[in-house]
UniProtKB/TrEMBL annotation:
<dbReference type="InterPro" id="IPR034603">
    <property type="entry name" value="Dipeptide_epimerase"/>
</dbReference>
<feature type="binding site">
    <location>
        <position position="214"/>
    </location>
    <ligand>
        <name>Mg(2+)</name>
    </ligand>
</feature>
<dbReference type="Pfam" id="PF02746">
    <property type="entry name" value="MR_MLE_N"/>
</dbReference>
<keyword id="KW-0460">Magnesium</keyword>
<feature type="active site" description="Proton acceptor; specific for (S)-substrate epimerization">
    <location>
        <position position="263"/>
    </location>
</feature>
<feature type="binding site">
    <location>
        <position position="239"/>
    </location>
    <ligand>
        <name>Mg(2+)</name>
    </ligand>
</feature>
<feature type="binding site">
    <location>
        <position position="21"/>
    </location>
    <ligand>
        <name>substrate</name>
    </ligand>
</feature>
<feature type="binding site">
    <location>
        <position position="318"/>
    </location>
    <ligand>
        <name>substrate</name>
    </ligand>
</feature>
<dbReference type="InterPro" id="IPR013341">
    <property type="entry name" value="Mandelate_racemase_N_dom"/>
</dbReference>
<keyword id="KW-0479">Metal-binding</keyword>
<comment type="similarity">
    <text>Belongs to the mandelate racemase/muconate lactonizing enzyme family.</text>
</comment>
<feature type="binding site">
    <location>
        <position position="186"/>
    </location>
    <ligand>
        <name>Mg(2+)</name>
    </ligand>
</feature>
<feature type="binding site">
    <location>
        <position position="291"/>
    </location>
    <ligand>
        <name>substrate</name>
    </ligand>
</feature>
<feature type="binding site">
    <location>
        <position position="156"/>
    </location>
    <ligand>
        <name>substrate</name>
    </ligand>
</feature>
<feature type="active site" description="Proton acceptor; specific for (R)-substrate epimerization">
    <location>
        <position position="158"/>
    </location>
</feature>
<dbReference type="InterPro" id="IPR029017">
    <property type="entry name" value="Enolase-like_N"/>
</dbReference>
<feature type="binding site">
    <location>
        <position position="131"/>
    </location>
    <ligand>
        <name>substrate</name>
    </ligand>
</feature>
Length: 354
């Protein structure tokens, strides 16, 4: 098998603003894994503020220890290859994710199956929410109306920059879209525990009907997140607090959250993601599958996972929707809140866009 990496920078049609950063491009490292006849694809996004992974670091890891670990294996040695990828280096989750997905993609293609079919599913449509970037109340309200008009009925509002202002922003969004669409919040670690409880309770009292609140406090503050979870009625979703199995076990033991957001670039690919979803299910913890600022390869892999491993709430897979133009040809297609999975083998990606 031959590993090739491709650096890509895809402009967004609208800036993406969170409590942690502002993005105008989706910066990724695409991985192409060839058996000489066919290629499997994977994607390593640059996620400085969450995983610490950079494009340069991912490229060095893939072309160095991961490539070395795969030496001597053939394209049908999937189980052993996946095991070696995870053991090739400490951390470097985006790099592991990219090669893990490429291995799965290539294996699916060699069997003449779609990736979701290879994972055991015939479901070729999954749903996603739509994220509203951080902004002033009027801009957020207008963005919410626009996204509902585009066909999205679950909206995720980025908050966490200003607790007092967050209350007003969310109220205006709810007033703008009415009672139909579901609203969820993502603080991206931006609140203190007391601010989180104050904001969530105020929105509960105002009847804003918030579906869930994602990562209200700092990732390492599981005691703080458990404190919040115990004091509000709205479900709490752990994101940055959970990378792998040990993290999820700690969340479960402390009762720190009601749900977990599983992301391939946080945990290292499809194989560890499946383990996290099964662990959450076994312990009665809800789950969604999310994404970083990824393109059609990364989001396509996550959508294939959702097809085969249904989650307890609508998933957060809108990242590729923000791209002005895809970095690859083929793959998933958006239609309002629906993501259509390809009927072609693997991820359906046929190559880099011109």
């Amino acid at each position: 098998m031959k590993l090739t990496t491709h650096l890509v920078s895809a402009p967004l049609h609208t800036p993406f603003v969170t409590a942690l950063r502002t993005a105008t491009h989706a910066e990724s490292l695409l991985v192409e894994l060839s058996d000489g006849d066919q290629s499997g694809w994977g994607e390593a996004p640059q996620v400085w503020k969450v995983t610490g992974d950079s494009l340069a670091g991912s490229q060095a890891c893939i072309e160095g220890p991961i490539a070395t670990a795969l030496e001597g294996l053939g394209p049908d040695d999937l189980t052993e290859a996946l095991r070696r990828v995870q053991g090739a280096a400490v951390g470097n989750f985006a790099a592991k994710d990219a090669v893990d997905v490429a291995l799965h993609d290539l294996a699916a293609r060699r069997h003449g199956q779609t990736l979701h079919g290879f994972l055991g599913s015939s479901v070729d449509v999954v749903r996603t929410d739509m994220t509203l970037s951080v902004g002033d109340p009027s801009a957020l309200a207008q963005a919410a109306r626009d996204r509902v008009a585009d066909g999205f009925d679950v909206l995720k509002i980025k908050v966490g920059t200003d607790a007092a202002g967050d209350i007003e922003r969310v109220k205006q969004v709810r007033a703008a879209v009415g009672t139909g669409p579901r609203l969820r919040l993502d603080a991206n670690q931006g609140w203190t525990r007391r601010d989180a409880v104050t904001v969530i309770r105020a929105l509960e009292d105002a009847g804003c009907a918030i579906e869930l609140v994602e990562q209200p406090v700092a990732a390492a503050d599981l005691d703080g997140m458990a404190w919040v979870t115990d004091r509000v009625g709205t479900p709490i979703l752990a994101d940055e607090s959970v990378f792998g199995v040990r993290d999820l076990v700690n969340v479960i033991r402390r009762g720190a959250a009601d749900l977990v957001n599983v992301k391939l670039a946080k945990c290292g690919g499809l194989a560890p993601a499946r383990t996290l979803l099964e662990l959450a299910r076994a312990h009665g913890v809800g789950a969604i599958v999310g994404c970083m600022m990824e393109g059609h390869v990364g989001v396509g892999a996550a959508a294939a996972l959702v097809s085969a491993y249904p989650t307890t709430a609508v998933n957060d897979l809108d990242a590729a929707w923000w791209l002005r133009e895809p970095a690859v040809t083929g793959g998933i297609r958006y239609e309002g809140s629906l993501i259509h999975l390809p009927s072609a083998p693997g991820l359906g990606v046929t190559g880099l866009a011109a």
